[in-house]
Amino acid sequence: MPEFAVWAPLPEQMRLDLDGQLHDMTVDDGGWWRADVDAAADARYGFVLDDDPTVLPDPRSARQPDGVHERSQLWDPSSAQWSDTHWAGRSIEGAVIYELHTGTFTPEGTFDAAIAKLDYLVDLGVDFVQLMPVNAFSGEHGWGYDGVLWYAVHEPYGGPDGLVRLIDAAHARGLGVLIDAVFNHLGPSGNYLPKYGPYLSSVSNPWGEGVNLTGPDADEVRRYILDCALRWMRDFHADGLRLDAVHALVDNTAIHILEEMTAETDALSATVGRPLSLIAESDLNDPRLITPRDRGGYGLTAQWDDDIHHAIHTAVSGERQGYYADFGSMSALASTLRNGYFHAGTYSSFRHRRHGRPLDKSLIPATRLTAYTCTHDQVGNRATGDRPSQNLDYGQLAIKAALALGSPYTAMLFMGEEWAASTPFQFFSSHPEPELAKATAEGRKAEFADHGWDADDIPDPQDPQTFLRSKLNWDEIDEGRHAELRDFYRGLIALRRTEPDMADAWLQHLIVDFDEDERWIVMRRGHIAIACNLGKQSVGVPVTGEAILAWGEPEVGEHGTALPGHSVVVTRAG
């Protein structure tokens, strides 16, 4: 007999609606309501609060087959069919991660369709698949960051059973799976938590009301978050989480929720007998996130590093708008590659204040920072969702790849970047409420119009074509230059495994030389040198040895290398 339980300190009365039949519930002193009632394994249920006849979904619902506004459905994780007992897992440190959006990764946009592409990812050489949020959100399609039922799996993707099949298939191929989890806010449609209890705080962030981490009854809200995080790794066998915008988690308690989460994740790791990783998205440049707990940090496995992205992208592309203003020089690129952060207690012109803190390179290896040339944010949050491949030539794309994948950092790709996908990745949504749909579309246009974009050029997030345009075109992957770039990526990834010097994770061993005027840069890792010419004119670079990978037609001689414009060469010293 299942127990139905929900934490709801606000209502004075609570009833369970089970397949249309109402059942009384009892409450304890902590605000937990419970009822033991016989139910079929796939029963539909919800809760009726006080005198309001509306049946609300379970805040810890595992399934929402009819959407986030309707009844929940029971799903027993012990019924899942797993075949991954052989999977020993691995840490993400030093790995290559492949970020993808389930709905646009394939034409079908489902977990099962993604399974058919896993062999391609294995051949490419990646180690982990990182799924953009798969929690339940309102509408058929969206990015997933406006989730409202954090425990449920988005039904159009395939629901919880589909996610089980995808992760099981990935493990069978030696691929780990990370899930993007959003705990800093909830979406605007289908968030019924305030009716149950004080889940939200008075502190807002750019995406809505924040979550109650420090106010009255915060302990239960924190437990709600921690249990959700652990559930993805325990019940769905995920190998870790990417934690969205942790700088928006306002927590002034003595033990920050991130520290608490890492401690409980480590305990779960010991129980399941495989590594579990937590990756933070943070714009704080604060090394405490990735400093071990016994050294006063939060103990997260790794952190996204936007400074590396900005330094590489601006140096190659020439863009300088917004938060790119302090980047673009070869000096800034070299400094960021050497130190992990560019802003480390230094003045940020974008923020109009000092920003960041230096990384202790003797304590924290480079593998605790994640380097990338693209993410869903850095593409999708551009006004038109244009990829670098829509603005740069193939040589420039190869340079960006060489600097990120050739670095000692943990590396990440965004789906399709490896073949210079021609499709954009735009911001799309499918809110069913007309008012919310209108507000989303108008807000998007107004945001970018303030930055000088023509409002008519901004795609309407609610237009189904915006979503369809963002789907990858797999037909182009084996065509001409697309295929050449894909093979270059494959070669770079392979070098991370086959060259012993590429395994050195300590930044104090990394040597970076550059010429500001001629716009070349050389990253040296032991016997390996990665030389890039970001300029249009051919230059001479002080690199010798055996050329083992190249883009363009470099000429490596006994006394140096001639690098054509927008070209790359990787050499191995004798």
TrEMBL record:
Residues 99-496 form the Glycosyl hydrolase family 13 catalytic domain. It is an enzyme of class 3 (hydrolase). The active site is at D244 (nucleophile), E281 (proton donor). One of its GO terms (cellular component) is cytoplasm. InterPro entries: DUF3459, GH, GH13_cat_dom, Ig-like_fold, Ig_E-set, Trehalose_TreZ, Trehalose_TreZ_E-set_sf. It comes from the Bacteria. Its EC number is 3.2.1.141. Substrate binds at residues 242-247, 306-310, 376-381. It holds the Pfam family Alpha-amylase. Pathway: Glycan biosynthesis; trehalose biosynthesis. CDD domains: AmyAc_GTHase, E_set_MTHase_like_N. Keywords: Carbohydrate metabolism, Cytoplasm, Glycosidase, Hydrolase. It catalyses: hydrolysis of (1->4)-alpha-D-glucosidic linkage in 4-alpha-D-[(1->4)-alpha-D-glucanosyl]n trehalose to yield trehalose and (1->4)-alpha-D-glucan. GO terms for molecular function: 4-alpha-D-(1->4)-alpha-D-glucanotrehalose trehalohydrolase activity. GO terms for biological process: trehalose biosynthetic process. The record marks D377 as: Transition state stabilizer. Residues 60-73 have a biased composition (Basic and acidic residues). It is found in: Cytoplasm. Residues 56-75 are annotated as: Disordered. NCBIfam families: trehalose_TreZ (TIGR02402). PANTHER family: 1,4-ALPHA-GLUCAN-BRANCHING ENZYME (PTHR43651), MALTO-OLIGOSYLTREHALOSE TREHALOHYDROLASE (PTHR43651:SF11). Belongs to the glycosyl hydrolase 13 family. This is Malto-oligosyltrehalose trehalohydrolase. The gene is treZ.
